[in-house]
Design a protein that fits this description.
It is a single chain. This protein is mainly alpha-helical. It has one domain. The longest helix is centred in the middle third of the chain and has 14 residues. The termini are close together.
Length: 96
């Protein structure tokens, strides 16, 4: 799935069936459903889920918790615009 396809899919009521769980969490975050996105990453293990988890806590404004998840993901703590970070994460996860 391309980034353009992914962004367009956010207009639908449900995420595309072929999405892995971390990109699905980003999809729900784009829809404004932080709780659903967070629940997904809480149930997942691995660096990708941890990276999305970090982003979600940054969105929430819980920077110490976000920092923990960035370290768990092996990623530097983001400091740019949230929407730009969302796009970077999505592009990398979709590109795999």
């Amino acid at each position: 799935m391309t980034m353009s396809d992914f962004r367009r899919s956010c207009a639908a009521a449900r995420p595309p069936a072929e999405l892995a769980r971390p990109p699905e969490a980003l999809w729900w975050a784009a829809k404004g459903d932080w709780d659903k996105a967070h629940k997904i990453v809480m149930e997942e293990e691995g660096a990708d889920a941890a990276w999305v988890h970090a982003h979600l806590h940054r969105v929430e404004g819980d920077l110490p918790n976000a920092g923990y998840w960035y370290r768990t993901a092996g990623r530097p703590v983001a400091s740019g615009a949230l929407d730009e970070e969302w796009a970077v994460i999505a592009a990398e996860l979709l590109g795999r």
